[in-house]
Write a structure and sequence with these properties.
Helix content of chain B: 10-25%
Number of strands of chain A: 11
Shape of chain A: globular
CATH superfamily of chain B: Mog1/PsbP, alpha/beta/alpha sandwich
Strand order of the largest sheet of chain A: 8-7-11-10-9
CATH class of chain B: Alpha Beta
Strand content of chain B: 35-45%
Order of helices and strands of chain B: HHEEEEEHEEEEEH
Number of helices of chain A: 22
Oligomer: heterodimer
Largest sheet of chain B: 8 strands, antiparallel
Structural class of chain B: alpha+beta
Shape of chain B: globular
Number of helices of chain B: 4
Number of domains of chain B: 1
Largest sheet of chain A: 5 strands, antiparallel
Helix content of chain A: 40-55%
């Protein structure tokens, strides 16, 4: 009895196994062409590549399945690698030692290495580099990428029609931010922004920056550009991105733009990220019960241009970012009851950054690189009249002209090719240093971010200046105020850190890193400290070379270090990517955008460190960050979150969390919109005070500023916050129910985080493989 | 010394007592808004909690901590974000991770602990001896890490600050939980009780 039962069970298990098999589709070498090495591996091990594209396994007498091909190739490559290493071992063991190889033996080793170079990993290649001349390495061997590590973010290459036509396109995963090749995905016509239905003189509802940024963005120089205020729920992000892209004055040979296209694969991923209607666990405050929301797929579809549609009008020229939140024709009227002193009220003595004293901003790419002030309702300019339900209209900025109707244009590819990128670097507005940095990025940037990097440079044409005094509060690179003569963003790179040495304890010393930009000090309500290193006329007393590069030391122990070119390139990469994400509508979650750009920088630095053979090109802080990230990624991530969610970090709002929970939080917060808005304003006021006061405290403690100056600045910060709080509590900001996140944008942000995870995972797996091999 | 004292006096403002974010939330909750009823204050200080990834079940504090969960290169991470440090540069973070053989780049527990306990002269990274503690999930190996970092790392002014970590590694067969509390050293004792209570409340769920 048992035997028949067993037989039946076995038969059933076989049926289920085949039923559960992922796919029975055969691999088709015509649809997905194999490269030369793959062909060679298959043919030499007895597989037959038939004319219909099927790869026939003669032993199993069946075609190789699509889903098993990558494993098969990996296995065959492993076997070939092992065989090659054994052969090398034989030669070396027979010799009198590796250093005493005869010419014949050396040639045999070279021959073997040449033959199998494609299947060798990075570690093995490094071990055997000494057998070849530099010329042979550069011209021949280094051009062969490690064949079977395509999953690694470090080794993946973008498909470049000019140089790598077919095989790698199929193997490399599509980046979230990548625009697909035109041959595969037909270009999509540009969507037309929804027509403004509001009456011309009707006021706009005020939307706080907190909707899309962690907190109401302060008039800060820290992140002026990437996360300047946006207009949530007004137009799909794709539309906004189109406007941003279209507004960028095209460089000499830049083609007209089309909407950023979301490949179907990515759209599917985005659509699959279904939000869950579960109350936020910590929604003890303003959050009410969860509400039903439209299906995510619909939201994604709404954010995307239609796949097939007739040619439509080109988008209107970009208006400044403030345009959509201002009425078309501001009509001064009695102010509605709104907070008189908003959280961001500033001392009028602070130059440049007070809300109404901003320099004129050119109509740049969505205001990137430009500090935008939030003009509080009823504070600076008379708010326009409006219906009672939209009482909190912001002060009006100059009214933008109505979008002119443009003639339909044929959509063209948005992406920039490598050749275009290189040509732009050579002929664009960059000096020798800028060109060198961009060339380095073009060659070494991680592949998942290359497409957007190229687009940002070629289409956005940001200026690059080496001037720490324009980098804001950022220590290494920041966004400088826009150059009126240049419509694009300006990225300021610091030439080196400004450091001050102070005693610590009985015998210790500590180095304090300070910003050079006077605007950063103005933001704190302080004058820059009187340091020799900040005085361009002062001469250094001595000079030394150490971990901070070549350091000029001044008489008052202040010093100026030097950042290496490689480090500057990494910082530039991060800024360019943030700029690109903002331009293309991927920055709905500040946290996700920053994490994505940071991961790209770290992978870039890791690649350079491998190539150079060390990480000495980084300053001590960045070096520590890279080592931690490689060796203890979990700890590094926790420290990053701890820093980014602090009052000074201001990247991650602890209440909102990552993109997915942010969407959830804001859906719940929408139910009690006014209270949520109030909570955001109060949080920003409190954050601003905490950040300023604690920095002032630390500066005073280190003796960098006078106690009196510190007291005055701290008192002013406290007064600002108290006034803002009182005004907000007396008259909470009203909203018309459109409070909420850009959900489609947040799903894109989730996809960014997923991409970072994939890239990081591939990097770590490759590292562990190399370590195991060594 | 005088500078330090003056700075302490300078910041002895009631506005900076407590965590600014929690205080702002409380103020918003208690504000009178026409047409909106005040939300109820939480009845319990701690509530039962199961993260979406079902990493564990346990209790978390309701006020002053914010949960956050995300998928990383090495699997799901649950985090509780606590109060800001005195310097304003570091927020207290409690994180929970689970590593098993399916985790990409899985490091066996022994090696992982060795890696965590590696000292670093550059940052003054010092590790305390391992102390076993009985918790809900089993016998945790706990230790503390202290090191000095310049924070914020991207912006200035940037000052050296001593950071503190409580680390608990809890083996579950060959797999293990890694629970970590990162905070400023100046404030770490304020969170010790919460950390221990959370650790003891943790239970495993069928995965």
């Amino acid at each position: 009895m048992r035997a028949p039962l067993l037989a039946v069970l076995i038969a059933f298990s076989g049926i289920f196994a085949s039923a559960q098999s992922p796919t029975s589709e055969a691999y088709n070498a015509r649809a997905t062409p194999l490269d030369d090495v793959s062909r060679e591996l298959l043919v030499e091990t007895g597989y037959v590549i038939r004319e219909d594209g099927k790869v026939w396994d003669k032993i199993a007498d069946s075609p190789v399945r699509l889903d098993e091909m990558s494993y098969l190739l990996s296995r065959l490559a492993g076997a070939r690698r092992l065989k090659a290493l054994l052969e090398l071992n034989l030669i070396l063991n027979r010799s009198e030692g590796e250093k005493k190889l005869t010419d014949a033996e050396r040639e045999a080793v070279r021959g073997l290495l040449r033959k199998h170079w494609a299947v060798f990993g990075v570690g093995t290649r490094k071990d055997f580099r000494s057998y070849f001349s530099v010329r042979a390495l550069v011209e021949e061997l280094d051009k062969i990428p490690p064949r079977f590590d395509r999953g690694s973010a470090m080794l993946m290459r973008d498909p470049d029609p000019a140089t790598a036509p077919v095989p790698m396109t199929a193997a490399a995963p599509i980046s979230v931010t990548a625009v697909p090749p035109a041959a595969t995905y037909a270009p999509v016509p540009m969507p037309v922004p929804a027509a403004e239905t509001r009456a011309a003189n009707a006021p706009r509802q005020f939307f706080p920056r907190a909707v899309l940024t962690p907190f109401l963005e302060p008039l800060s120089l820290r992140r002026p550009s990437p996360f300047a205020p946006r207009r949530p729920a007004e137009a799909p992000a794709a539309v906004a991105a189109v406007a941003a892209v279209a507004a960028v004055p095209a460089p000499a040979y830049a083609a007209p733009q089309t909407a950023p296209y979301v490949p179907p694969a990515i759209a599917a991923v985005l659509g699959a990220m279904a939000p869950v209607d579960v109350p936020h666990p910590m929604m003890t405050g303003p959050g009410p019960a969860p509400v039903a929301i439209p299906a995510p797929a619909a939201a994604v579809a709404a954010a995307q241009p239609p796949s097939v549609s007739p040619p439509v009008a080109a988008p209107p020229p970009l208006t400044p970012r403030a345009a959509p939140v201002t009425s078309a024709a501001p009509a001064p009227a009695p102010a509605p009851p709104v907070p008189a002193a908003p959280p961001l009220a500033r001392d009028a003595s602070i130059p440049l950054f007070a809300g109404s004293t901003l320099p004129p901003q050119p109509a740049g790419p969505a205001g990137l690189g430009v500090l935008k002030a939030w003009t509080p309702p009823g504070a600076a300019a008379p708010p326009p009249a409006g219906p009672p339900d939209s009482a909190a209209a912001p002060a009006a900025a100059p009214a933008p002209a109505a979008p002119p109707a443009a003639a339909p244009k044929a959509p063209q590819a948005l992406d920039a090719t490598q050749a275009e990128f290189e040509a732009f670097i050579a002929n664009g507005p960059y000096g020798r240093e800028g060109q060198a940095l961009l060339k380095m990025l073009g060659a070494k940037a991680p592949d998942f971010c290359r497409a957007i990097l190229r687009r940002t440079v070629v289409r956005g044409a940001p200026l690059i200046v080496i001037d720490g005094a324009r980098a804001g509060a950022d220590r290494r690179a920041g966004f400088a105020p826009s150059d009126p003569a240049h419509p694009g963003a300006v990225i300021a790179l610091s030439a080196g850190p400004l450091l001050v040495e102070r005693k610590k304890g009985m015998f210790g010393k500590t180095l304090i890193a300070l910003p050079e930009d006077p605007r950063a000090w103005a933001e704190l309500g302080l004058a820059p400290p009187a340091l020799d290193a900040l005085n361009k006329a002062a001469s250094p007393a001595s000079q030394e070379t150490g971990p901070w590069g070549v350091v000029r030391i001044y008489a008052d122990r202040s010093r100026h270090g030097t950042y290496s070119t490689q480090e500057q390139a990494g910082e530039l990469l991060e800024r360019l990517l943030l700029l690109g994400l903002e331009r293309e509508g991927f920055a709905s979650s500040t946290y996700a955008a920053r994490a994505w750009a940071r991961a790209a920088r770290l992978l870039f630095s890791a690649r350079l460190a491998e190539d150079i053979g060390g990480d000495a090109f980084l300053d001590p802080d960045r070096r520590l960050e890279l080592r931690d990230w490689i060796e203890r990624g979990d700890e590094s991530d926790d420290l990053m979150i701890a820093s980014w969610s602090s009052s000074r970090g201001n990247v991650l709002d602890p209440r909102r969390g990552g993109p997915e929970s942010q969407a959830l939080y804001e859906r719940q917060a929408k139910e009690s919109c006014t209270r949520s808005l109030l909570a955001d304003h109060l949080a920003e006021a409190a954050r601003s005070l905490a950040s300023r006061a604690r920095t002032i405290e630390a500066l005073a403690e280190s003796g960098l500023i006078s106690i009196d100056g510190a007291k005055t600045a701290a008192a002013r910060a406290e007064k600002d916050e108290a006034a803002a709080r009182a005004a907000l509590l007396a008259s909470p900001p009203a909203c018309d129910g459109r409070f909420g996140a850009d959900e489609a944008g947040l799903r894109r942000s989730s996809a960014l985080l997923a991409e970072v995870s994939r890239a990081e995972r591939a990097f770590r797996e490759r590292k562990s493989r190399v370590a195991a091999h060594d | 010394m005088i500078n330090a004292l003056a700075a302490v006096l300078l910041l002895a403002s009631p506005a900076l007592a407590g965590d600014w974010l929690a205080d702002a939330g409380k103020a918003a909750r208690e504000a009178s808004i026409a047409g909106e009823s005040k939300p109820e204050a939480p009845k319990k200080a701690w509530i039962p909690f199961v993260p979406g990834s079902r990493l564990f079940s346990g209790e978390i504090p309701v006020e002053g901590w914010w949960p956050m969960e995300e998928e990383t290169a090495t699997g799901s991470v649950f985090r509780l974000l606590g109060g800001d440090s005195h310097s304003g540069s570091v927020r207290t973070v409690l994180s929970v991770r689970f590593y098993d053989k399916d985790t990409p780049g899985f490091t066996p527990i022994k090696l992982a602990v060795e890696l965590l306990r590696r000292e670093n002269k550059d940052t003054g990274r010092e590790i305390s001896p391992v102390r076993p503690v009985r918790v809900g999930l089993g016998l945790a190996r706990t230790f503390e890490i202290v090191e000095t970092r310049r924070v914020p790392s991207d912006e200035g002014p940037s000052f050296e600050e001593e950071l503190h970590q409580y680390v608990a590694v809890i083996p579950v067969g060959e797999a293990y939980y890694l629970v970590r509390l990162v905070s400023s050293r100046a404030t770490y004792l304020e969170y010790r009780e919460d950390f221990v209570r959370f650790l003891k409340s943790m239970r495993t769920l069928s995965r």
